[in-house]
Amino acid sequence: VQLVESGGGLVQAGGSLRLSCAASGLIFSIFEMGWYRQTPGNQRELVAAITSSGSTNYPNSVKGRFTISRDNAKNTVYLQMNSLKPEDTAVYYCSIIKHDYWGQGTQVTVSS
Fold it and tell me: Which of 12, 29, 32, 39 is nearest to 74 (CA)?
């Protein structure tokens, strides 16, 4: 299984970024997928999840600003991040929910 994230970068507060995670080596469509983030010294935090049927879930910290989606034909999960805040700065990882597979992460930095 391989997960490859892309789309991170530096953005000003209030801006937007779209992260992508391309998956291979699995039957992508049957798995619940998630985006996590981690800052130094802290545990990884789940910021969005999407089930195989397309149901989504977000913590209050990003609800209304982040949107997770998936394209099963492309084996890809996306994270659209709007109205970004400096506290969103972190390394973002995609993962298969309840399975210990992770991408290499992509850095998102939001300047104030």
Answer: 29
* Pair 38, 44: CB distance under 8 Å: yes
For 110, the token pair is: 């939001």
Three-state SS sequence of the chain: CEEEEECCEEEECCCCEEEEEEEECCCHHHCCEEEEEECCCCCCEEEEEECCCCCEECCCCCCCCEEEEEECCCCEEEEEECCCCHHHCEEEEEEECCCCCECCCEEEEEEC
User: Counting Cβ atoms within 10 Å, is residue 52 exposed (0-12), middle (13-18) or buried (19+)?
Assistant: middle
Structure tokens at 44: 């990884």
Residue-wise pLDDT for 35-89, tens only, equals 999 999 999 999 999 999 999 999 999 999 999 999 999 999 999 999 999 999 9
